[in-house]
Fold this protein.
Amino acid sequence: MIREVDILIAGAGPAGCAAAYDLAQAGKHVILLDKRSFPRHKPCACGLTRKTLKALRYSVDPVIERVCNEIVLQSAEAATTEPDSRRARSTVRVKTRNPICAMAVRERFDDFCLQQTLLAARQGGSIELRKIDRILALRELPDFIELDIATPRGPETLRAPILIGADGSNGQTRRLVEQHGEAPSHDDGFALEATVPYTALPATLPNGAAPHDLVFDFAPLPGGYGWLFPKADHINIGVGAFAPATGASHAQLKQVTRALLLDYAQQKLGVTTLSHITGQQLGMGGHTYIPRGRVLLVGDAAGLVDPLTGEGIHSAVVSGQAAAAAILECDLNDHLNEVAAAYARHLAPLLKTLTFSHRAARAFYAQPERGFKAMRLPFMRSLILKTYADGLPHTALITALAKLTT
Ligand SMILES: Cc1cc2nc3c(=O)[nH]c(=O)nc-3n(C[C@H](O)[C@H](O)[C@H](O)COP(=O)(O)OP(=O)(O)OC[C@H]3O[C@@H](n4cnc5c(N)ncnc54)[C@H](O)[C@@H]3O)c2cc1C
């Protein structure tokens, strides 16, 4: 038997929830599929910038563990072996009166967002959350999408005019859509993370950072950075590379290993063991994405992680909302590409920003030391900070970076 619904959404992360929330509020019947039961772990440092908090439809205060007004940026010269004076030259502290970034733990953040989403249905709308084992097949027919799914109760077929592919960087929808030649190009990054409880730290940290510092560190690897994100009772430590978006090679992606992360943890935090090391690809390259047909890719499935910063939750939320807005303004029985065209229109401002980011990432990561020098200039510092926190158009930033790196 084939079950028919208004909208199918694959993936209940930030992108899928953002879309489901707006659709259910507008009275649509949504089936939200996920292969995991929530709360579930997802590798992510869960730094929530001001623009992310603004984009969300509800306050996430209940799951915010810390608010950071300062970012510590470190260059490749900031190695622990450097004398103090030299180390100070390769560290930039950027402080503001307003919070730059809020810290949450991803497992709790996602579960909270999912619960808010499930409460969103208004005007007769509904969201049915379904745990599935996997998607078996996707058929795009002239008037609808059919999805064969494997569930704990056996195989099933679902039919809807539209499928929102929100199943992340390793999800199946992007691959299935690729078979039709409609998916964004693959340009993925890769990042590894672990947690270190404050109680496991030595009395003094080896390179002079404070335990609650929010650190972006361009030392550990080319084409990416290491980070320290302070939570309530632990530090989320990680390393990530964003090649080839940054002009780095696939070989550099392979440098993101457990050994690199362990080495980095030893250098920065003086710890020799790490628990909960997990990693995942970051969906990138979506700045060239042209939606087509009845499958709208959102978030990491569409490759929308910012290649300059590695930030992806903001894009996930904004693209999920853009897909919902497109669906709500179209008659779904109309011409095949009408919804896709509306989605492209709603997505355009985000893709424009990501295109700028792509260029900025290439300029910055090609010569991080020169890029880092730029950050020492007060006007560059405030521009970078505003772009990261608020998502200002990067035009001025690109121009300035281009000047400094050519
Ligand atoms: C180590 C690391 C650190 C990061 N740190 C940050 C950060 O600090 N700030 C930030 O903004 N971004 C960060 N990111 C990026 C961010 O995690 C992603 O961009 C974001 O999660 C994308 O959201 P999404 O909803 O598109 O996908 P996801 O969050 O990946 O959600 C996808 C959902 O789909 C489900 N799914 C997968 N396959 C299927 C399937 N076949 N069928 C049904 N469901 C399926 C999954 O279980 C999951 O629930 C980080 C990423 C990594 C890897």
